[in-house]
Protein 1
Amino acid sequence: MDSTSTMVGTTTTLSNDAFEFVRSLIYQQAAIVIDSSKSYLVESRLAPLARKEGASSVNAFLRQVRSQRSVSLQQQIVDAMTTNETLFFRDGPAFDALRLQVIPELIKQRSAEKSLNIWSAASSTGQEPYSIAMLLRECFPELGAWDVRIFATDVSREVLEAAKKGQFSQIEINRGLPAALLLKYFRQGGTRWTIRDDIRQMVTFAPCNLAGDWPSMPKFDLILMRNVLIYFDMVAKQSILTKANRSLSCVGSLLLGNGETMMNIDAGFDRMTYDKAVYYKLKR
Amino acid sequence: MNALVVDDSRAMRMILTRIMTELGFETHEAENGQEALECLRRVGSVDLALVDWNMPVMNGLEFIRAVRANPRYADIRILMVTSETDFGNVTEALAAGADEYAMKPFDRSMIIDKLQLVGLGA
């Protein structure tokens, strides 16, 4: 499959005009300056909005916004560009489900092998896999004697390089991270906060384009594929979820983002719930 | 639910009050820790206090210690909202009894995150 035709945002095809329009809009409305090297960011942040509006590309969407002079769409662009979507322990109910149901069940089911393979499939700058690592360390100390591997992948090599360093700005550590965990698992150097080496070393980062060929990986007991399927069309979603099905161990669970569903997709999963959270297991 | 915004900056009080009101809180304001304690005596108690660190008369840390010393206010969740950003500051605030710590600058979504962390989220 040609990934560039299905995944908006993996290539930076944004026109200069379109980029300058967004840059100017964000500056006027939010006083935020977008660096000229961040064209990819504009495209990836606006892709879901473009898709929702029925546009064939982000360029086409921005042409439409400019010609219609829609205040509402302009506001939605500002929101999409200024909302920091990457935060620690994102979506409390999902982490409650992991802590209180999914991981305790996995520990029972894997007690003979004493091994767990976890995949954060769209890890961005690392907040998700590091949150999982901290969760395991905080709530499941018995796993210290297990072989636990957290794989973290993203399509962007740039964000992977940032994630590997485990360094976060003040704004990033302000989002979702309990202060007690900040003190316990980070050290400060000026305005940067670096995650402790033992937590950083629990995570292995590697590139992976979900719409392309996946690298050779083990079967996973837990896959977090959250807030990434929105970037794909229905055909690509079906393909990705079918591959996720084959990558999940027989006891494994798959988590999508809050509000993401498998509606109109049959990829061989059963829907499970824990309180407000939804997750999926292989169909029995 | 009700909240108490404690900050000596009028602009900061206005911003926080607007955010909290939009989130459905009835909000009281105080310019320093002393005023905040008087406000608590007047209104009984609040669900949440958002507290700056550096203020005249009584600073945020002293206010938090005074609140935590009074069993009547045991249920108040305290979120420190401050431009003090050192590791030592966070340690000191939590030791004094703050439940969470938000570093300025902040925005609405960050305050919402922090409310969830103190158990007052949607």
Protein 2
Amino acid sequence: MSGVYERRLLTQDRGFGLLQKFWQIPWSFALLTCALAGIGYVALYSAGGGPEVYATKHATRFGFGFVLMLTIAMIDIRLIARFAWAGYLLGIGLLVLVLLHGNVGKGAQRWIDIGPLQLQPSELMKIMLVLALAAWFQRASYERVGNPLFLIPPAIMILVPVGLILKQPNLGTALITAMIGGAVFFAAGVRLWKFALILGAVGCAAPIAYDHLRDYQKARINVFLNPESDPLGAGYNIIQSKIALGSGGLWGKGFLQGTQGHLNFLPEKQTDFIFTMIAEEFGLVGALGTLALLLLVVVFCFLVAMRCRHQFGRLVALGLGTNFFLYVFVNIAMVTGSIPVGGVPLPLISWGGSAMLTTMLGFGLLMSCYVHRDVEFTAARE
Amino acid sequence: MIGHTARREEERRRGIFTRRAALLGAGQLALLGYLGSRLWSIQQEEGEKYTLLAEENRLSARLMSSPRGRVLDRQGRVVAGNKLNWRALLVVEQTQDVAATLETFSRIVPLTEAERLRVERELRRRRRFVPVVVREFLSWEEMARIEVHAPDLPGILTDVGHSRTYPEGEEMAHLVGYVAPPAERDMDGDPVLALPGMRVGRAGIERFHEKVLRGRAGVAQLEVNALGRVIRELDRREPLPGEDVQISVDAVLHKKLRAQAKEGTTICVLDAKTGEIVSLVSQPSFDPNVFAAGISPAQWREWTSTRSTPLINKATNGLYAPGSTFKMVVALAGLEAKVIGPGDRISCPGHLDFGGNRFHCHNRRGHGAVDMRVALKASCDVYFYHLAMRLGIDRIAAMANRFGMGVDLEIDIPGARRGLVPTRAWRQQAHNKSWGLGDNIIHGIGQGWYQLTPLSLAVMSARLATGRAVQPHMTRAIGGKPVRGTKPEDFPSLGIEERHLQLMRSAMFGIVNEGGGTAPRAKLPPSYGAMCGKTGSVQVRRVTRQQRERGYSAERVPREWRPHALFVCYAPHHDPQYAISVVIEHGIAGGKYAAPVAREAMITVMDHFRGVTTPQPRVAENRRA
């Protein structure tokens, strides 16, 4: 019966053609992504001391990503919902593959090579998890969400990738993945006392977990607590980053004039510490401006979520928004010495093909949510 | 129906979602706001602090060592200079394979296993772009071979630095000194000392004029990156080269005099009027170049443990009792204190008995009744035994001090000993005993607790000749500008009555030139003028009665038991030019062995300066050796 209903809806939508969809694309948001990629271009131009090292390739990647984003934007959201499971399983498969055959970087297996691309499956996994969870909760009424048994499968859906990512080991990404899953749970209406229960359990388990952390992970936490304790060792990054930020002042040292970045005091200035480059050369004004644009992206995600008339779109938009927010927050909190260094790039600005690909994929899905905000899904089951 | 339920259900879900999304969104907004405030506090409130830190990061001052000043001899010859030091360096980051490069290198210029280990050790310690010295002091031929093979030697660079060189080798070592890598105690706050390859003066002129010779380091303000690699030079202060120091010693003359001195012989030649050191010969000597290149522990042990003490400049640091050469001082003290008149006679039976001891005269049969001139001429010991007992040690010591003995001569050779002239107070302090009357006896003939340097004996001789407090010194000019006064009038008078001095000079003339004198062997050929001198022979071991009865001869006892032979002199008699002291360790007898050495030295010096005009110190135009 439901199948018939669905088909009817689809036939109703026949008039919703590609051209119409194209005009529905939120072009102001597309412009926003261009602005951020432009900031990335400028920062990478400076980091490379010219366009050829990073900036040009960054722009090219963004161009491809932009097309990808627009393409995905026009894919029917219901189609996406239907294949969310396949995407989730693909993500899990890649995570297993990376454990078996991945490239080791900094003591962890995180990358697999797909042709010229180095893919970090954990990044892809976050998006796939959001889709899969949204698809799960799309069909659930408030009452069903209140049923603990109904929550067991989605909880497993979160725990499996989190466990695989922890095994790499990549504590930061595992935590972020769990948080995104938690955000979707929260927005789907899972009762608050269950969150309290889980948070309590995690609080109790944390000291035990600390014992099982790798040495570099413990070092990161310890150095974060007292960066000056080891100025040339693990604390070096945080101190140099803060020096770069602080010496930027209000207006910055000027384009290409940053000393900390250009003299290589900044570690990984083109990836994790790109925000520091911006803050050093363009000062507080540039830094806050960039932060404001990033904030706009998050705000847009939440607006899309509010506008969606179906639970799937709402949860996807909120989940992707939270994902983006966590990237931005962790990265900037890291370079300002507010949380331990975690190797998280700044989306659209940092150098990296894999990150650009997943970011644009997410934006494409977000746009699709917006474009298809008013389509009707099959009714929620009783 | 279904639609209605679904729509109601949908409304409910949406309501919950909206509330919760608003909550999440607010939380995220707050957190991003917090980041904004973090940025504000770092970039605004602490901005100045971090700006300063960024500058410190960026800037690095590099010191550039200055070429060390040279030491020139009296004629402007270089006796301590700088030579170009061709070095092969290895930069790790410019080579694929360090081991292969070193292997190829050692086929071109052989490397010992120790050198290779040192290079590998240094390579591990340095950053990849910092050059490490593979081999120093490359010859021209080796340099050429390295250059030819340059394509096979990735990472090998050649450069040229400076190293100290002493063209005269061991000839001038005691005067010029030597340089060595700075030790902890050499650190005088000058940061340039921390530079690799720096050397500091360790002895002689090199040490005395260390500051002048070292110059001032240059500073380059460099912009560096996080690894310390230089990006560009922002500012530069050129190094100020060290100034040349010219000394009064003539290297050629010095070499001639050294050739005349056997091992254990010390010859001091002063300009009698100006106090300029013409030569200080101390045999044996050492090669200071060994120190500049870095001395091996074995060589150091050999030089420090051997009895002949090559490292010690015996002219300034060897300590001897003056023996009979001291008798003029005792005589002058007696005359000044009026305990004896020039014509007063004292009877010499060949010995003096005092307190159960018999003090012998060197002439066992005695000299009979002698006045002062005869007593000096014949070197009668008994006369001076009596005189010393009348004077007491303190008045003798006071006169000795006026002649530059037992006092700091403020000579420009670091570490020179002041020597010791005993006094009653010294005896009390050093041995906690009071000075006995009998102690005066042997101190009247320059034996006993005296410890004097050969240089101070030459100074005494010059002061006797001139009556002035002539000060010995070696520095003639610094940076081409003459230093202190070299005119005799610059020195104050000793304040000794001229007729007393004349008596001494007359006696010293008689010793060499008249019958009955103890040093006929020191007589100069007539064309050189007359030599005035005094012999001395110093027992290093008590001669027992049994030995005397068996017919003691200093020539037949083992070398280290033989007396030292001394001779002090100046010439010519009426216009003293040069004052000389000769000390021959275990040289047996002053008159027989030291006097001829002094005579030969005097002739050599006079020959050398006859017709040789000493150029006035001039500004050295060409610093590079």
Protein 3
Amino acid sequence: MNLVKDLCAELDRMVNDQFDSIEFKAFLGVPLTLERGRFYVIQNALYTSNRRDCWGYVQGGAPLEVKRVVWEHESDELINDPRVGMDHYNLTVKQGEVIGLKREDFDNAQVPAMAQACFHAWHHIAMRGHWLTSYAASHMLERRNNGKIVKGGGMSFRVGKKFENELGINLKRMISLDVHVVADTEHSENISEMFEKYVKTPQDCERVLEGARESMAIDRAYRGALGFYMERIN
Amino acid sequence: MAADVNGLDKVWQELVRLCNEQFESQPFKRLLGMKFTKPRAQQYSIQMAYYVQNRRDCWGYVQGSAPLPVKQIIWRHEEDELIGQKAQGKVDHITLAVKEGEVFGLSADAFEKTARLEGGEVCFSAWIRLSQKSWLEAIAASAILEMRNSAELIRGGSLSHRIGMIFERDLGIPMKKQINNAEHVVMDVEHAHLLMQVAKAYATTASAQEAILSGARESLMIDRVYRGHLAELMESLD
């Protein structure tokens, strides 16, 4: 029995299962209109900000070597992704231009109640959990976006395809979604390597699985909430 | 700071006063007043490496809760500490601390195998708790320790400088060979301005300024307790 190999197989099963959940099906089943697309893109920028909070907390709680990996990870996200020449928040804002959004639409955006609750829940795991639990919780959201692992494509790919098929906007023009199709594959592989080094016992495994399960539950709630709000936009 | 912007000049003056006052406290006087023998210097060097690691924990938490532009500032701050400046041939500060240990006769192994001081562990937990409070309190709590280490702000020299001078006096190790101390004497002058850079943009109300002062005061209190524990440990070594 290979502890880490079995663990990774379980994590892969979990991220694939996300797409069979009622919440993901409901969210991905909402027909896109331009207004709904705008809502999604703005909310995705706020989600990205929440990721930055959580990865900061994970960096705070992790051992030194893992801190360095997280710091490198945050370079693309927070400072500059050399693939696009800007950080990922500005990338999302730039992507918004394609669907008529301005920077102030992002700066003035409100997080709806159900999404806010999910953001707090992710904060809680990132700040209060054992570092392996916190680390796994944040990592899983990138693993769930990794097209090499998720059959049928990760979340960014699928949402990008919806923009293409339902609004006629080519995925390449949705620059943030397009970059995340690639970036999260790389990120999740780099981050995953740390499991090889630090998961040595069944207890370590359980800590990772606990973070993964909780984060995936919040992710389902979050996507369900987005679908709920999008359906109400005409 | 030349001009008072929304009362920030008063905040700055108070922070500088608090940092200088640290050196008048009993724990600081006890630590800085003792003779550093080789075993004491070794223990100090090892415990300080743990202190630096705790700083990395706390700055991570501060980065997590701060607004996006401040996260970016902290990320850059952590580059010096956590990664180093590869282009300039500078290593990270943990590696630097271990490397400096060589001049005291310490191996890398000694840093890994020596236990953390118990009282230090308690202080580290207190600092972590502080770093998880509201972000302005948290950033002040971490940044004030770098202000306390800034030669520009502290009359009579920063903590790193004073310790470096003791190593030179008691052990005959010149400052330039104390690569970690020497680096912090320079770096913390630069890093000390981080807090006011942030305060100018975000601490424009009385309550925000009070949050900064509160975080700074609490952190300096922990700092005094920590230095007292260090002094006690070192006194127990001959």
